[in-house]
Design brief:
Blueprint (H helix, E strand, L loop, with lengths): L17 H33 L7 H20 L10 H21 L18 E5 L5 E4 L8 H5 L10 E5 L7 E9 L2 E4 L11 E3 L10 H8 L5 H30 L7 H13 L2 H11 L6 H8 L11 H28 L4 H9 L4 H29 L2 H7 L19 H11 L6 H26 L1 H6 L1
Antiparallel strand pairs: 1-2, 1-6, 2-5, 3-4, 3-6, 4-5
Helix pairs in contact: 1-2, 3-15, 5-15, 6-10, 6-12, 7-10, 8-13, 10-12, 12-15, 14-15
Length: about 475
């Protein structure tokens, strides 16, 4: 009797097709990458506990090794996944520079994370201390802050059990974190003995940060009239005005320079293109010098005409006008170039037919040029509005958000937009750093930008075009 042996079916090397196949491949790659990072985190954590001076970059080394080991194993289970391994660099950069910052921003928005509450040792309140013979008892010579050891260490409980004490040796080159078992008077009992050879000279606490719920958002909206609403209103006015002014200037110049009967139009195009070619950092710094109230050439020229000097950057209203003018200088070449490119797509026969019918040049522009430019300019105007809504560069370089205005927050002055307000809050709030409040501002900016973008898309008919 013949026995038929069943052969083990070979796994398919053909990748799944369609959108479902792409999502499945991306999901497998994300799980593989996440597993490698988890392995790297666990191994580096174990080494950090055994060797306190271990370098932090070990997590990258172990993650990379985990990825090298995991890729062949996954390929044996799913042979078709090898065709998708080229996506790994994109996923790594996307995770490092997009996903991780977004996750951290959302997380910090609900905490009290600041320059002081950073989760790092507090170097400002170190206390001299000695280590007992059992290498588990640390005695402080005095308390730099607070009436009790628990207050100084900012313990979560009365016994301080589970909290952290930071130990320093004489050189204070390495901070060793030790878990606390309990406190009594000025004496701290550690959960585990200190390693041999480490002599404790100073100790300090950890400036912990924790979750505070919606406290940051309540603070923002509680002082909305001093920061949020004025800054939001100016941001919208700035973005909208910039787009309209730049578009009109670029449209007029583009139509004029597209005229083939204009002599030397290539020279004019090159000269008018230069403001866009020069880096904005250089251009804006040049304008800061030109608009200086006392020594700037603009006010010097006004003085020769018998006019009073204008506080271009020293008055809230004039500072806003200056921003719009400088942004016009920086932005009109782009609109001009876009207009010329769009005009090149219009059939010349339309103008010839209109001329035969007796239409004037203005009638041709009104009835042919502008309607045909509408579709080309709609995405340009929408992207220009979105860009200028977050145009941090010109605000920071030209006015630094100033000048100061009475009744406003120190971080939200007369020309600050939402993004510069968040930046000031993150890095210079009351002389320090308030990353949690800045993260909450970033979330508000995101939802405001999303709402405005949806309104713009709806008004421009983008959704109707996508459904066709």
């Amino acid at each position: 009797m013949a026995v038929t042996m069943r052969s083990t079916p070979r796994r398919s090397t053909q990748p799944p097709e369609g959108a479902g196949g792409v999502l499945l491949a991306v999901l497998v790659l994300v799980l593989l990458l996440g597993g490698a990072v988890l392995i790297g985190w666990l191994l580096s954590g174990l080494i950090a506990q055994a060797v306190p001076g271990a370098p932090p970059y070990l997590i990258l080394v172990f993650s990379f090794l985990g990825l090298l080991l995991g890729m062949p194993l996954v390929a044996r289970l799913l042979p078709w996944i090898t065709n998708w391994y080229y996506l790994f660099p994109a996923l790594v950069f996307l995770s490092a520079f997009t996903v991780l910052p977004v996750v951290l921003t959302v997380n910090y928005a609900f905490t009290n994370y600041t320059g002081q509450n950073s989760g790092n040792p507090d170097a400002a309140v170190r206390a001299e201390a000695t280590l007992g013979n059992d290498r588990r008892t640390v005695t402080l010579s005095e308390l730099p802050e607070g009436n009790s050891l628990g207050e100084y260490l900012r313990c979560r409980s009365v016994t301080c059990a589970g909290d952290t004490l930071v130990l320093f040796d004489e050189e204070a080159s390495v901070a060793v974190r030790a878990a606390i078992a309990g406190v009594a008077g000025r004496q701290v009992t550690l959960a585990a003995p200190v390693a041999e050879g480490f002599e404790v000279v100073n100790v300090t606490r950890i400036n912990r940060y924790g979750y505070v719920g919606l406290a940051n958002f309540r603070e923002i909206f509680g002082r909305a009239t001093r920061a949020l609403w004025p800054v939001f209103a100016w941001t919208v006015i700035f973005a909208f005005s910039t787009v309209i002014i730049n578009a009109v200037a670029g449209l007029v110049l583009g139509i004029l320079l597209y005229n083939k009967r204009l002599k030397g139009r290539n020279v004019y195009r090159t000269l008018l293109f230069l403001p866009w070619a020069i880096p904005a950092v250089i251009s804006v710094q040049m304008w800061v010098a030109l608009l200086n109230q006392q020594f700037g050439i603009v006010n010097k020229s006004l003085g020769l005409l018998g006019l009073a000097a204008v506080p271009w950057l020293g008055d809230p209203l004039w500072a806003k006008i200056s921003i719009l003018l400088v942004n016009l200088w920086l932005g009109f070449p782009y609109m001009m170039t876009a207009t010329i490119s769009a005009l090149a797509t219009i059939n010349e026969d339309l103008y010839e037919a209109a001329s035969i019918d007796g239409a004037s040049r203005w009638q041709q522009i009104q009835n042919i040029t502008l309607p045909l430019l509408k579709n080309a300019f709609t995405p340009i105007l929408l992207s220009g509005f979105a860009f200028n809504f977050n145009n941090f560069g010109i605000i920071y370089l030209l006015t630094r958000g100033g000048p100061a205005q009475e009744g406003r927050e120190a971080t939200a002055q007369s020309t600050d937009i939402l993004l510069s307000w968040g930046y000031n809050t993150a890095f210079s709030a009351n002389g320090g750093q308030n990353y949690a409040l800045a993260s909450a501002i970033a979330l508000i900016v995101f939802f405001l930008t999303l709402a405005i973008s949806l309104v713009n898309f709806r008004a421009a008919g983008v959704f109707r075009e996508a459904q066709r």
